[in-house]
Amino acid sequence: xxxxxxxxxxxxxxxxxxxxxxxxxxxxxxxxxxxxxxxxxxxxxxxxxxxxxxxxxxxxxxxxxxxxxxxxxxxxxxxxxxxxxxxxxxxxxxxxxxxxxxxxxxxxxxxxxxxxxxxxxxxxxxxxxxxxxxxxxxxxxxxxxxxxxxxxxxxx
Length: 156
Fold this sequence. Notes:
Blueprint: H1 3-15, E1 19-23, H2 29-35, E2 44-49, H3 53-60, H4 64-70, H5 75-89, E3 93-99, E4 114-121, E5 124-131, H6 136-154
Helix pairs in contact: 1-6
């Protein structure tokens, strides 16, 4: 079990806060890490896996025009995904992940390992970009850890 996930669950239980997730390249691994922890049902309301652009639009309300203009792996899309998860999950906080885990699919502008994270709370949304290295597994694992860290530090 992830120590970060345990810390997130413990902190959010104490604060009586709820979480929703919107994941693309991690395919539900953040929600999975959280649900490994006993007591997570008091915190995690929903985890949405929106791997395709159509799912991002249909399930999270990300405008197709935003994806067309910036690409699925971008600051505006990460923000919109987090906002969509917050709204649809009716939670206190939402985290989103969209990235290129590899081994293919990268470009000079967005190389393999590029991951955008969104974090939304009522009235506030922000995004962060990270560039991870290693295998597909390594990139996805690092992405999960970063998303959990974002959740943890958002309520300190």
